[in-house]
Specification:
Order of helices and strands: HHHEEEEHEHHEEEHEEEE
Number of domains: 1
Number of strands: 12
Number of helices: 7
Shape: elongated
Largest sheet: 8 strands, antiparallel
Radius of gyration: 21 Å
Oligomer: single chain
Distance between the termini: 18 Å
Strand content: 25-35%
Helix content: 10-25%
């Protein structure tokens, strides 16, 4: 009951800071991103089970228990934007300025006004979420806190340094996931709700909706950094499991149990969703979008020298 009351108080506090739907277009800065971490909807804090520990002293050994909790952590900010060097998160733009191998951006065109653009291109940056401190204070009101894998302001993927894979789709253009329809797609063809394909995980795709195109590219970037040994220039956004700690694994499209997205730009939302969704999509005037990537972690407090195991509640 105390957990429920604490959650209600938190929701009331956050309501004064973030609108439950969306705010109008604004300049995305670090302060805004930090405040966006105060989201009970994205957090989804819950008691998940019980952990068992063997605690030994000179007088003998006993089995102790601790509560196992599960919640999401804002690991990174994923920006998906058209013009190279113009990340919508203004304080980190200098990380991904144009270089000799990554200059331009934007959309292809047929030069016919009555026809849609043939191709879109998006840069993508995955940078550690800056809100760890305020997030920890926020969650500590509910109970035990699980650490995320992200480090504030750490660049995990900057597409301007991943030129071969990001701009030329080498070698992923030849992967089965890129060649066979229906493999690794965001949405479904049968349900007529298909946003795009995950592979090849580069910046080009064909789409008539710029917001959806940016979301697909963000999903591709998240897919890369949450796996090890990918043919890209990046750092993995993964933590190692240890006794009493179960970190998030690989991000899978349309599966909230692996991660979900909180829109930061062009509108700020206090709720999370997976792609595809049916929410209102605001088109960015400059083609620049950003999302916070929230990923699930489970953990329990250490109460002994040896971890014996855990049980989960249904």
């Amino acid at each position: 009951m105390s957990l429920l009351l604490a959650s209600r108080r938190l929701r009331a506090t956050v309501a004064s800071l973030l609108l439950s739907t969306a705010t109008s277009t604004f300049a995305l800065d670090t302060a805004t991103i930090v405040s966006s971490a105060l989201s009970p909807d994205c957090l989804e804090y819950r008691v998940a089970g019980i952990c068992y520990w063997l605690h030994c002293t000179l007088t003998g050994c006993t089995v102790r228990t601790s509560v196992k909790v599960r919640h999401y952590v804002p690991d990174a900010v994923v920006s998906s934007y058209s013009n190279t060097g113009e990340n919508p998160w203004v304080e980190v733009r200098a990380m991904s300025i144009p270089n000799p191998t990554a200059q331009g951006g934007g959309d292809g065109t047929t030069n016919e006004e009555h026809e849609n653009n043939l191709a879109k291109f998006k840069n993508a940056d995955v940078i550690g979420h800056p809100g760890a401190t305020i997030f920890s204070q926020f969650v500590s009101q509910l109970g035990y806190i699980c650490a995320g894998a992200g480090t504030a302001f750490m660049p995990y993927l900057l597409s301007t340094f991943d030129t071969v894979a990001w701009r030329y789709n080498i070698p992923e253009a030849l992967y089965p996931e890129a060649l066979i329809p229906g493999m690794r797609e965001i949405g479904t063809r049968t349900g007529l709700h298909l946003w795009g394909n995950v592979y090849p995980r580069g910046g080009f795709l064909h789409h008539v909706d710029d917001h959806k195109a940016a979301a697909v590219v963000a999903q591709r970037a998240g897919d890369i950094v949450t796996r090890r040994g990918q043919v890209h220039v990046y750092q993995s956004l993964l933590a190692n499991a240890r006794p009493g700690y179960w970190p998030a694994g690989a991000l899978v499209e349309s599966d909230a149990s692996t991660g979900k997205w909180q829109e930061l730009a062009p509108t700020l939302r206090s709720t999370c969703a997976v792609f595809p969704h049916n929410r209102l999509r605001v088109q960015a005037q400059q083609g620049d979008y950003a999302w916070a990537l929230w990923r699930p972690y489970s953990c329990c407090g250490r109460r002994g020298q040896v971890f014996l195991g855990s049980i989960d509640f249904n």
